[in-house]
Amino acid sequence: MSLLVVDLFIWRRWLTAGAGAGQLPTGIPGLDFQGICALTAAAATIVLGCVLWLRSHQLHHGAEEASAVLILASALSIMVLACAAVAAIAFGG
Predict the structure, then answer these.
(1) Which residue has the higher pLDDT, 59 or 3?
(2) What are residue 32's phi and psi, to 5 degrees?
(3) Rounded to whole angstroms, how far apart are CA atoms 43 and 83?
(4) How far apart are CA 44 and CA 60, in angstroms?
(5) In the chain, how many domains are there?
(6) What does the pLDDT look like over 20-76, one tens digit per residue?
(7) CA 49, CA 93: separation in Å to the nearest integer?
(8) Counting C-beta atoms within 10 Å of the first and last residue's C-beta, which end of the chain has fewer, N or C?
(9) Which residue has the higher pLDDT, 77 or 20?
(10) Residue 87 is assigned to a structural domain of this protein
């Protein structure tokens, strides 16, 4: 639940920030450092949601042990979300 709150805070910061000095030279409007952090956080949250859904599906069908892929995916997603939160704070100004 706290990961979802972190994701929402990153998105709120990106949406409320104006076109700042963090604009990348890509020419894509809204794609700045905060935007990259928001997209990264959203992707990590989606992966965690998929892991949660798959694990609950496994438990419903009687699997006792989690697969190594699910454990690895959830651990990497948590680390990516933490990095996105730190980067959003660092580049947020």
Answers:
(1) 59
(2) -125, -170
(3) 13
(4) 24
(5) 1
(6) 545 555 556 666 778 888 888 889 989 999 999 999 998 898 888 888 998 999 999
(7) 30
(8) N
(9) 77
(10) yes
Question: How far from the centroid of its chain's Cα atoms is residue 41's Cα?
Answer: 2
**Please, which contacts does 17-25 make with residues 24 or more away whose CB atoms are closer than 8 Å?**
17/92, 20/93, 22/91, 22/93
- In the block, residue with structure tokens 């959003």: 88
In a domain, 20, yes or no: no
- In which domain, by residue range, is 87 found? 2-14+30-92
- The pLDDT value recorded for residue 28 is 62
88 located within any domain: yes
3-state secondary structure the chain: CHHHHHHHHHHHHHHHCCCCCCECCCCCCCCEHHHHHHHHHHHHHHHHHHHHHHHHHHHHCCCCCCCHHHHHHHHHHHHHHHHHHHHHHHHHC
Taking residues 9-29, report their average pLDDT: 65
Yes or no: say if 32 and 20 are a contact pair by the CB < 8 Å rule: yes
